[in-house]
Amino acid sequence: MGKRVVITGMGIVSPIGNSLEEVLESVKNGKCGIDQITKYDTTGRKVSLAAEVKDFDITKYVEKKDARKLDPYSQFAIAAATDACHMAGIKEEHDEETDDRERYGCIIASGIGGISTTEREHERGMKRGYDMVSPHYIPMAISNMAAGHVAIRFGLHGYTTCTVTACASSGNAIGDGFHYIRDGYADLMVVGGSESSITELSIGGFTSLTALSTATDKNRASIPFDKERNGFVMGEGAACLVLEEYEHAKNRGAKILAEVIGYGANCDAHHVTAPHPEGKYAAKCMELALKDANLSTEAIDYINAHGTSTHLNDLGETRAVKSLFKDHAKELVMSSTKSMTGHLLGASAAVEAVITCLAMENGIIPPTVNTKELDDELDLDYCLGDKARTGKINYAMSNSFGFGGHNASLVFKAVEE
């Protein structure tokens, strides 16, 4: 029997709010964070909508001169991790004699890393010569640097890394951190993901791949499970969670928000971008998570679906749930919060983990907003509507499935009253 792993802190920067309080209110009220792209001129482009972060001020966390040396994805990660650590009672300043952090680590994922910095420095190199690019370019762009900055900020001397598994990235980060503590290698791990890919090149790449919605109505763009869905909407932001060994948290007097009890990870090994059409290995991934949690399928009350609003994903995930959960598939509730946040790529699983834990704590079920008419085979309870539903969640699952066939499923348990 491994050690119990609890969540003692959470932080978030997202298209629907930059604090737990803001995000909770947005989820309760079904707020959609999608709007016109403001980061560049979309005239003549097929895609004009995205879910941008609004009113974010990095100078609340770092000095303005230092912020200039950080790609936005690192800025988002530092903000989310700082809020999560402070909530957990972990401060930047500490006495290493009495607060040994050699058993504190960090896994912060990013699917793409600092792509806006790469685009800017490539343009500078084209104009001025490549020996004239910024000396800060490499440490701003590489995907592991968000984890590095957070570790430096909080003196986390334990295992620190970055998972890069496309849209499953932060699901793997949370799951790997959970197992690392459960198996006795660490006392505390700061885990999550960050992404800032609303850029001309990134949007262009996904557009040419025909993965993005070309809708012009922001309320009909990210519509998971809807008959008229035609692609996902790019989002940006970050979320981090502080995972902690139960006795360690108890001894510190930390407030326990939820418990992580199961994690499954595998690969479709089917196609570079398309999921397995029957959801065969997505179902197996969920089964692995339930086995890890020592739970039956009947125990799950809610699934935060990967639910990207693409034809293949929504159909494959629904088939996977029906295949594994059988009759209970019609009893549980499944929703896609990407209908509100858009798809944050490598940060999506962490954002959805935070939303799921907020839902468990506050007795609500997040809605799938703006979805009107379900596709023929999509016949589960997707919590449709423009507001959250009242409902108790004791056990929740959160799914993330990425390009390359990477699958990750997490199981959370509510705090017992």
UniProtKB/TrEMBL annotation:
Enzyme kind, highest EC tier: transferase
Active site: 167
EC number: 2.3.1.179
Metabolic or biological pathway: Lipid metabolism; fatty acid biosynthesis
GO MF, one annotated term: 3-oxoacyl-[acyl-carrier-protein] synthase activity
GO biological process assignments: fatty acid elongation
GO cellular-component term (any): cytosol
Any Pfam family matching the protein: Ketoacyl-synt_C
Residue span, Ketosynthase family 3 (KS3) domain: 2-414
Keywords recorded for this protein, A-Z: Acyltransferase, Fatty acid biosynthesis, Fatty acid metabolism, Lipid biosynthesis, Lipid metabolism, Transferase
Catalysis performed (reactions): (9Z)-hexadecenoyl-[ACP] + malonyl-[ACP] + H(+) = 3-oxo-(11Z)-octadecenoyl-[ACP] + holo-[ACP] + CO2; a fatty acyl-[ACP] + malonyl-[ACP] + H(+) = a 3-oxoacyl-[ACP] + holo-[ACP] + CO2
Record-stated family: Belongs to the thiolase-like superfamily. Beta-ketoacyl-ACP synthases family.
Function text: Involved in the type II fatty acid elongation cycle. Catalyzes the elongation of a wide range of acyl-ACP by the addition of two carbons from malonyl-ACP to an acyl acceptor. Can efficiently catalyze the conversion of palmitoleoyl-ACP (cis-hexadec-9-enoyl-ACP) to cis-vaccenoyl-ACP (cis-octadec-11-enoyl-ACP), an essential step in the thermal regulation of fatty acid composition.
Protein name (record): 3-oxoacyl-[acyl-carrier-protein] synthase 2
